[in-house]
Amino acid sequence: DHMPGEDGCTLKGSDRATIYTVTNYVCTNIYDGTETGGGGEYYGSGGGTDSGTGGEPLGPGTTEPCNGSGVATNPLEPSTNISEGGCSGIPTVVTVPSKNKTPCQKIKQWFEDAAFKEKYDSITKPGIHQLNRERAFYMRYPTVGTNIPPAYVEVNMPTCSTDGNLPTFTEGMGGLMHTHNDLDCHGNTPIKIPSPTDIRTFFNTIMPEAGQYAGGYHNAYSIISTSGGNYMLMYSGTNYPGSINYDANKKLTKEYADAFEDLYTYNENVTQADIEKVFTKFMKEKINKPGFEIYKVTPTSAIKLEYDPNSSGSVKRTNCP
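Predicted structure:
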């Protein structure tokens, strides 16, 4: 273990209680987010997941759906005609996959949707992972029973922001896609795979909203785009598998950091396949929620990843038809 400032680790913002581990100059902050203004969980090598550098959730940077006149269709402040951060045009309308389809069929249908493909392309284009901020979009569903179609809304992430900076208004958020940068603002290298915060957000926010607004938990999804690959979290079950509470999340965060610290400690040449092995094992042994699935996706392919010690590299890779 090293103190902040050693081997490239720097103290960020108001993270006064930050704890770091450093292996081969990979810096991991395993601070549990309990300190006010500390910015929540943050992983220098673990996905760049919560606001380790600004500390505050998105407010002025959040954009809600707008009509053609630049007026929020569902303003956060009823006394005004604007949403947090103002309005910036008409959100892109999306087509929701049909019910009773498998995750593979849903993925294919998502990529056939022009709006989905447009947003996916914008978070996977060359150079996007070298920016000094993450880029994010969420899919917002309207109130059940209305004729308003769902739409993608861009979240204007501030400099050095990370995916913990969700909009303060999450009603109807049934899908999310965002980037993980190759380096954070302090030169640390995030792990190119979904983080514990990504997983918790999927269970605690996206799934309940999809269950209420999108016709079922099975329509929830989250895409994490990295330069090592693009990963899509999905759910194939029917019933809600339960949320991840604070204590469980704190434990998972520590176990996640330990698992990847071990990987970098005993392997000088870590590959993306190595990272996928550790992550899928973590999912199977620590998350263990039936129906929770991860796919490595491109516009023309999807591969289901599962931990299996009997498979090559201990990861079973099943191609979607």
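Summary: DSSP finds five helices and eleven strands in the chain.
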